[in-house]
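User: Predict structure, ligand manganese (II) ion.
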Amino acid sequence: MIIQLKEGITQQELAALIILVKQSGYTAQAVSTARGSYLVCLGSLEFDIRKIGGQAGVKDVHRVSDSYKLVSRKWKQETTKIKAGHTIIGGQKPVIIAGPCAIESEMQITAIVTHLADMGIKMMRGGVFKPRSSPYAFQGLGVEGLKLFYKICRQQGISIISEVMDIGQIEQMYDYVDLFQVGARNTQNFNLLRALGEAQKPVLLKRGISGTIDELLQSAEYIFSSGNEDIILCERGIRSFEHAYRNTFDINAIPVLKQKSHLPVLADPSHGIGIREHVTAVALASIVAGADGVIYEVHPQPELARSDGQQTLNFEESAQLNQKLQALQQFIQAFN
Ligand code: PEP
Ligand code: MN
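Assistant: Predicted complex:
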């Protein structure tokens, strides 16, 4: 059960409400975010929730039977719109985010920023802390790379998403990113999720490499219940028995996540399939499936990229992908 609290609820009203909830056989955990205050109540006894609805300080009360509560669509029917930099994610229009797997140099950033600006793309991705399978592989340029990334993007009015790998990096990155990315390897790093819950910046949460839908939503619940509602879910493929491609992009996850949660859902076709030639097909399919946008990898010379070159588009391919996405969007609008 979720109890939405009125803005001006007094300490006495809150205390009385918690006593009532506990007397009804439920636990109560208070959650406060920039958007609202809630009591998340767990229990299994049947009781008339109108009893709660009539209490002083209560705005609304909802039964939510899912294992996750605050991220469930059961209490909030409209999709949450999230503002990250200059971009709104979860609105009518699908968003496009693009950039290299890793930030590599001033020349690389400048070339990509120019390409994105030409296409009207308002947010650039790029890792400076890279979670690599091998400790000998390129690990990213770190905070200095992020500052360079920030400086060039700000000049062009482009917002930034970059991956945070541990709690200590949140503060280091805070002033230079508009959206924190939690990568697939950290989806269940609960300490990191809690810390991001306390940071007042939106978070893009990727699905774990072998993570279920329920686990992804529970991870999102960690962030929300720690104080941050601005969460975007991201399907990026899961590990399966199939080895013909890097990951199995789970198209099913998109409509299912959209149904189960009010949070916006982005698709990452680059990691989802891991093969450059097929990134466009998966991107288009994900929009048809209902994704709120795509995030893909682009590089001036993918064959020279220091990570994930095999799944990274060059500028021509990226421009084609954008044209196709625009055409698809017009078709979808006419169709609806
Ligand atoms: C990335 O976005 O470059 C990345 C490492 O993604 P994932 O966490 O999905 O593997
Ligand atoms: Mn990558």
